[in-house]
Amino acid sequence: MRKQIIEYTSPLDALIALTKQLNTYEIKYQMNSEEFFAKYSQGETSDDEVFVEWAGNYQHYLALHQDIKSKLKDSDRIYQRGTLKNTCNCQFPTLLLKF
Q1: Per-residue confidence at 11, pLDDT binned at 50, 70, 90?
Q2: Which stretches of 1-99 are DSSP H helices?
Q3: Average confidence score pLDDT of the chain
Q4: Neighbours of 22 (CB within 10 A)
Q5: For residues 39 and 17, what is the distance between their CA atoms, to the nearest angstrom?
Q6: CA gyration radius for the chain?
Q7: CA distance 19 to 60
Q8: pTM value?
Q9: Which of the two residues, 86 and 74, has the higher pLDDT score?
């Protein structure tokens, strides 16, 4: 199978694309990615190419998710300390993101 390299403009775009791909696997195999990865890691699945891809995509998803979550926490700490200034006096909407 020929692989294609896709570049994203941001980690969030990559996370969204991975989430869509994981959802495709989950629907097809009637199993969530966390459950699949636990079985895969314990050798309870075959090493078919699709499962290797699913496992790699899930690991990439987890790494991106953690990176974005960490950056959001860091940004919040900076904002809470008052070191991030709203110099344009713009009104920013509040974003509620749950991780």
Answers
A1: confident
A2: 11-29, 33-41, 49-81
A3: 82
A4: 20
A5: 23
A6: 18
A7: 10
A8: 0.71
A9: 74
